[in-house]
Amino acid sequence: MSAQLPASLSEETVREISDGRDEPEWLLETRLSALEALETVDLPDVIQTPGRRWTDLEALDYEELVDPLNQSDKTERVTDEGVHVLPFTEAFGEFGDVLEENFGQTLDPESNYLTALSTALFTTGTFIYVPEGVDAEDVKVRAEMNSKSLFSHTLVVTEDSSSVTILERIESGDSTEGDRYFSNLVEITTGENSYVQYGSLQNLDDDTYHYTLKRGDTGVYGTINWIEGNMGSRLTRSDVETELNGDSSETQIVGAFFGHEDQHLDLNARVWHQAENTTADLVTRGVLDDEARSVYEGVQDVGRDAWNTSSYQRENTLMLSDESEADASPKLIIHNHDTEASHSATVGQVDREDLFYMTSRSVPERTARNMLVEGFFVPVLDEIAVDEFREDLEELISARLR
Amino acid sequence: MSSDQNHLKETDTEARFEFKKEQNSSFQTEKGLTEETVRVISEDKDEPEWMLQRRLRALEQFQKMPMPTDWPGQPDLSEVDVNEIVPYIRPDVETRGSVDDWTDLPDDIKDTFDKLGIPEAEKNALSGVGAQYESEVVYQNMQERWQDKGVVFMNMDQAVQEHEDLVKEYFMTKCVPPSDNKFAALHGAIWSGGSFVYVPEDTTVDMPVQAYFRMNSEGMGQFEHTLIIAEENSEVHYIEGCSAPKYSAFNLHSGGVEVFVGEDAHVQYSTVQNWSKNTYNLNTKRAIVEKNGRMEWISGSMGSKATMLYPATILKGRGASDNHITIAFAGEGQNIDTGAKVYHNAPDTKSTIESKSISKDGGRTNYRGLVHISEGARNSSTAVECDALMFDNESTSDTMPYMEINESSVDVAHEATVGKIGDEDIFYLQSRGLDDDDAKQMIVSGFIEPITEELPIEYAVELNRLVELEMEGSLG
C-alpha cells in the first residue's frame, strides 16, 4: 500500500537540499528519481497473518512527520589511521568517483517508499572509505538528532584485503514538540577478502518513529558482521540484510533489543546466499516489558547456485510482562540441497527455577530477575568486538531494569 | 538389491494407485457453479430447506471472496477455474444411498476399492469403513458392537436425514464457517458425501474407523465433508485415505473436516492422501478441543499438483492439548504447501507440531505454520519441529512459521533444519553392498519413521510404498 505524499515535498524542496550542499549532478538526479518513485513504490512489506498486520506503517502521518527543510543534527566522527570518514559534502571532491560508482548500488534507493523518501531528502550521513590493505578498528559515528525529521545515508566502501570496525550511535538531542521521524540508510560494499563489522546502537527518545535499512554486499572471502542494538524510539522498523555474493563469504547479524512501555519494535534480519561456500549466522535476543511489542522476521534464502551453504538462525525473546506481545517468524527458503541450515525461535519468561535458586540464596527477587535478564543478553554481548559499544549497551540494559 | 527388498516390491504399487475406470455415472451436474447447480445437488439429496439455505449463503460468500494469491511462496492457483469443474457426479449404483454389503456394489466400483485394498483392511483391523466414489458414499459398514453402544458412523448425506438436529447444530457453524476462506465457501456450497462420526459419552472405540475417497472421473471436483463429534470422555481414531488416477485435465479436491473434541475426549485423525499429480488439494480441517481434551492430526501428503492444507486446532478448554505430525513429499511439478495452525485460548494448554518434508526433482515443499497464544493462556507450551530433506538443487523447501505470543507465562519453541541427504550415510550403506537408489530409499524411510510409527500398520505400509514409488528409478 502506498502512503500519501506529504504536501511539503516537491522537486523544489529536493533541489534546494541538493544545491545547499553543492552536490554533483548525478546525486541530484538520483534524488529526483527517488522523489518520482514515491508516486509508485509501496511501503515496506510487513508480516500479515489472518486478521492482522503485525506493524501498521500506513498509520504514520508522514505529512505531519516530514519537515525536509529544517533538518538538524550534531554528528561527531572519529576516524582511524588510513580510513577516510567524511560527511558526504566533504567527500565529493576527492572521492567523487568512488561515491558515484557505489551510491545506491547495494541498497536500491527505490526499493520502497521509505528508502525513496530518505534518498530524496537526506542531509546527513557519512562516507567511509577503507583503501586496500588498511586495517582499522576505531571508527565511530555519534549522531544526535535535533529536528522534527532527519534523514541520514551512510555509505561504506572497503577495498580488497582491508578491515574496519565501525560503531554508530544514534540519540535524540534537543527535543522538539510532538512526534519525530528518523530515517537511517546504511549500505556496505566490500572488496575481496575484506572484513567489516558495523555496530549500531539506537537510543532515540520515545516520541521518535525510526526507520532503518542496513544492507551489505560481500566480495569473495569477505565478511560483513552487523550488530543491531535497538533500545529507544516509539516505533522502530529495522531491516538488516546481507547479500552473500562472493564465494566463501560470511555474515553475522546480531540483534539485541529491549522494549518497554508501549514501544513497538519490528526487527528483521535477512540473508541471501548467492555464491558457493557461504556462511551466515543470525542471532537475536530481546526482552519485552510493560506493553511493548516485538515483531521479528528472519529470512535465510539459499539460491539455486549456492552450493555448500551453511546458515543458522536463532531468536530468543524473554517476556517480563503479561501485557507485552512477541511475534516471530523465522523463515527458511532453500533452493539448493547442498545446504546445512537451521533456525530456531523461542519465547519464554525468566526461568522460575533459576529465580527460586537465587532467591533461596537470599538475592532479593527483583535483583535476581534483573541479573537473569542481564545474563540473557550475554550470548549477544559476547559477539561485540568494540568495548565501548558493549559497555554502552550493558549500561542501557541495566538502566532499563531499575 | 537384497531379497527382502524384492519381497517388498512384489505388490505393484503403481498399478494399485494409477489404474482408472471408464466413467460411469447415473447423474452429473453441468460444469461450473451456479445457484441452479447448488439447488440441483440439494434436491437430488432430498435435503431439508435449512441445508439448501446454508449452501446458498456459502455460494454467495464464495462469489464475493477473492482467490488467495498473496501468501509468500504459495502454490500457483491460476489454473483453478471453478467453471471448468464438474462439482457433482452420482455414480451408477442401484441402491439409493450407500450399501452395506461389499458384494452388492457394481463390479467396477468394487474392483476399484479391491485394488486399493479396502475390504482386506476392514476385515483385518477396522471397526467401520466408508468408501466414497466420486461424490457419493457407495459403501458404509459399521461393526454391530459399536452400533449397539450408540456410535454412529455413516455418510454425511444420510446424517443430514437421520441426525438432523446434530448436523444442523454443528455443520459449518462453530468450527469451519464458510467465510473462513474461499475454498471453505466453495465447499459449503457444493459439498457432497463424506463421513459423520458420533461417539457418545464414556465410549471408547478402540479400533479405527476408516473412510476412503476416490476420484475417478476427469475434470471433477470432490467436496466431501467430515464431521466428528466426540462427546465427553470418549475416544475415537478416524482414518481417511484419498486417491485419484491421473487425467489430463485438472481435478479439484476441496474437503471440509470439522472435529469436536469434548471434555476429556481424545480424537485422532489420520490421513494419507495420494491424489494424482493434476489434482489441486485445497482443504479446510479444524478441531475445537474442550477442557482436558486431546486432538491428534497425523497426515501424509504425497500426491497432488498443489496442496494447501493447514489443519487447525483451537484449544478452547483448560488443559486441552494438540499434536500434529505431518509428512510431505514433493516430486517433479508438485507444490505441497502444508503446515499447522494452533490457537491456545485457555490456560495450561499444550501443543506439539512435528513436520517432515522431502523434495526432489524440482518439487517444492513448504511448512507454513501459525501458533497463536492468547492473553490469559497462562502456562501454555508449544514446540514446533520441522525437518526438510532435499535431493537436488532443482527442488525448493521453505519453512515459514508464524508465532503470535500475547502471554508472558509460556514456553514457545520453534526449530527447523534443512539438509541434503548425507553423502557419508550413502557411502556407508553402499560399502555394505546396497546400491545408490536403495541406500537413498533406506535413508528416506528412516527419516519419516517418526511419522510412520504413529500410523496403523496398514497405513504405514502404504506410506512406505508410496515413498518407494516416488523414489523409484528417478535418482541419479
Structural overview:
Chain A has 402 residues and is an alpha/beta fold. Chain A has one domain (11-350). Chain A contains nine helices and 20 strands. Chain A has a nine-stranded mixed beta sheet. In chain A, strands 4-5-7-9-11-13-15-17-19 form a nine-stranded mixed beta sheet, covered by helices on one side. A two-stranded antiparallel sheet of chain A has the order 1-2. The mean pLDDT of chain A is 94. Chain B is α/β, with parallel strands linked by helices. Chain B has helices at 3-8, 13-18, 35-44, 49-64, 107-116, 118-125, 144-148, 156-162, 164-170, 182-190, 423-431, 436-452, 457-471; strands spanning 25-28, 89-91, 128-133, 136-142, 152-155, 194-199, 209-214, 221-222, 225-230, 235-243, 251-253, 256-261, 266-274, 279-282, 284-289, 294-301, 306-309, 312-315, 321-330, 335-344, 350-359, 364-373, 380-390, 396-405, 410-420. In chain B, strand 3 (128-133) and strand 4 (136-142) form a beta hairpin. In chain B, helix 3 packs antiparallel against helix 4, helix 8 packs across helix 9 and helix 12 runs antiparallel to helix 13. Residues 1-14 of chain B have low confidence and may be disordered. At the A-B interface, strand 19 and strand 20 of A face strand 24 and strand 25 of B. Strand 19 of chain A pairs antiparallel with strand 24 (396-405) of chain B.
Distance between the termini of chain A: 41 Å
Count of distinct strands of chain B: 25
User: How helix-rich are the residues of chain B, as a percent range?
Assistant: 25-40%
Mean pLDDT of chain B: 81
Bulk shape of chain B: globular
The most extensive contact between chains is: A-B, 38 and 37 residues
Low-confidence stretches of chain A: none
Please give the number of β-strands of chain A.
Answer: 20
Stretches with pLDDT under 50, minimum 5 residues of chain B: 1-14
Instruction: Quote the beta fraction of chain B.
Output: 35-45%
Secondary structural class of chain A: alpha/beta
Strand order of the largest sheet of chain A: 3-6-8-10-12-14-16-18-20
Domain module count of chain A: 1
Main beta-sheet strand count, sense and barrel state of chain A:
9 strands, mixed
Mean pLDDT of chain A: 94
Estimate what percentage of residues of chain A fall within beta strands: 35-45%
- Report the C-alpha radius of gyration of chain A, rounded: 21 Å
Shape of chain A: globular
How far apart are the termini of chain B?
Answer: 16 Å
- The share of residues in helices of chain A is 10-25%
Family (chain B): Belongs to the iron-sulfur cluster assembly SufBD family.
Region (Disordered) (chain B): 1-32
Biased composition (Basic and acidic residues) (chain B): 1-23
Organism (chain B): Halogeometricum salsisoli
